[in-house]
Amino acid sequence: MENSTIDKLPKGWKSVPSDLGSDQTTFKGVNWGKAMMWIFLLSDTFIFSCFLISYMKGRASTVVDWPNPSEVFALHVGGFPVPLLLIAIMTFVLITSSGTMALAVKYGYEKNRKMCGYLILATAFGGLTFVGMQAFEWTKLIHEGVRPWENPFGAKQFGSYFFMITGFHGTHVSIGVIFLFIFARKVLRGDFDTGKRGYFTTMKSDYVAIEILGLYWHFVDLVWVFIFAFFYLW
Amino acid sequence: MKEQTKKRTETTHKIGIYLWIWGLLFVLSFFSYLVDWFAFQGLLRWTLILIFMFLKAGLIMAFFMHLFWERYTLVNVLLWPMTAIACFIGLMVAEAQYTVFTRFIYFVLGS
Hints:
The complex is a heterodimer of chains A (234) and B (111). Chain A is an all-alpha fold and 234 residues long. Chain A is 71% helix and 3% strand. Chain A has a single domain (67-233), classed as Cytochrome c oxidase, subunit III, four-helix bundle (Four Helix Bundle (Hemerythrin (Met), subunit A)), CATH 1.20.120. Chain A has helices spanning 3-8, 15-20, 32-61, 69-72, 85-109, 113-143, 157-189, 191-194, 208-233; strands at residues 75-77, 80-82. Chain A is globular and about 65 Å long. By secondary structure, chain B is mainly alpha-helical. Chain B has 5 helices and no strands.
């Protein structure tokens, strides 16, 4: 739909009933891939909400003391424990990668092929670093005897919630990294400038694909914001 | 419609806005880490954690995910289901209090 046509449609609150009651497309002027990615992210929000709510319920209803995350996730630097050090670094790495992704989307829309491609690559390496540190954290906790059914620090439920929630988030990051590498290759090869057809989809694409990829990546960062607040800080 | 969608020129935003949000996210993350560093406890800790969390989530969604500039219908369709999640959280808080109450009576005090 052209900009001039969209400008004639109602704005603000009035656009909601008029959009929802309209013909052909609901979200006027929104790329269909982008709308579909948002619907997927909404359903993913429900999944992560269910995990976090069940964690909240489990933690609130146990009669044994919950392990103190500040001590469990502390790293020893020069012999004295720094609380949540690794988690803080992981948070900063993920926010950094989110920033590079936002810039990649911007350069993509400006058809700046090289900047866009290299920023996606930087994002992918940020994600890899994050997954690597998460693997380190899991290894450390498993060596300390944390299992889904028991742990030496306190309430037994701690392990199952920890592995389930961070594991599911880590899976999302890993899938994101795979797609970031695929799209970095596509961008740098110039697929979105030449209109080369996709291997699986056989459809032409353009730089809006980078924004859709960006939505997924920012969502991964968004989920981490909630996990960081509720699991590690609370 | 499909052909027409392609013609629409996507709006691009100034780099400054992204760098500002990026910086703010770093600062807010640092603040939420300080909450743990200074070992605030109780209501103060939970309030600060929630404030920094919602600010970060809001900034990411509004600017990095472009919801601030997105079509209003899409924004509504995405944000209203969160109300259902909030209700679910409320229900489960009540349920957890009941569960821990019965557990204290039967497991700890003995039946």
